[in-house]
Design goal:
By secondary structure, the chain is mainly α. The chain has one domain. Helix content is about 80%, strand content about 0%. The chain is built from five helices and no strands. Helix 1 packs antiparallel against helix 3. It is elongated. The chain starts with a helix and ends in a 6-residue tail after the last helix. The relative contact order is 0.13.
């Protein structure tokens, strides 16, 4: 029963991670292309700084593609944990950005980065646990040589 519960939990975390990657890419590319669909880029309030936020989203999407491709090809999914940490840290960076530039940053940015960051962190933790469990099982079976 524990194995079934773990597999269901793993499936939910993996599905949530892949959904968060898709959400991140779609939101970033649509925000860059069309503007105010997901986040409020008030051109009067932000002025040229609105383009800074859009470019940040574009760089974020490109970085996400590169990180996911690397993890997929090299099967090192623990790196996703670090990416999730930086996504969560972006919340504080945006608050600082808004404070320094004296602008209000759309609160949807905070929810967006919190969801995608936590999804990445949980997936990275799961990948680390799975890797450790596989190594422990492999070494117990006697197939691991020192």
């Amino acid at each position: 029963m524990n194995n079934l519960a773990f597999r269901c939990f793993k499936f939910v975390l993996e599905a949530n991670f892949y959904v968060s990657v898709i959400v991140l890419l779609v939101v970033c590319f649509i925000s860059v292309a069309t503007g105010d669909y997901f986040f409020a880029f008030n051109e009067d309030l932000y002025g040229p700084m609105a383009n800074n936020l859009r470019m940040m989203l574009l760089y974020l999407a490109i970085s996400e593609i590169i990180i996911c491709a690397y993890c997929y090809f090299y099967k090192k999914f623990q790196i996703i944990l670090i990416a999730g940490f930086f996504l969560v840290m972006a919340i504080g960076s945006l608050k600082f950005y808004g404070m320094i530039n004296d602008v209000d940053v759309d609160s949807n940015f905070f929810l967006f980065f919190l969801y995608t960051g936590l999804s990445h962190i949980f997936f990275g933790i799961l990948a680390g646990i799975e890797k450790n469990v596989n190594i422990d099982n492999y070494s117990r079976s006697g197939n691991l040589t020192n």
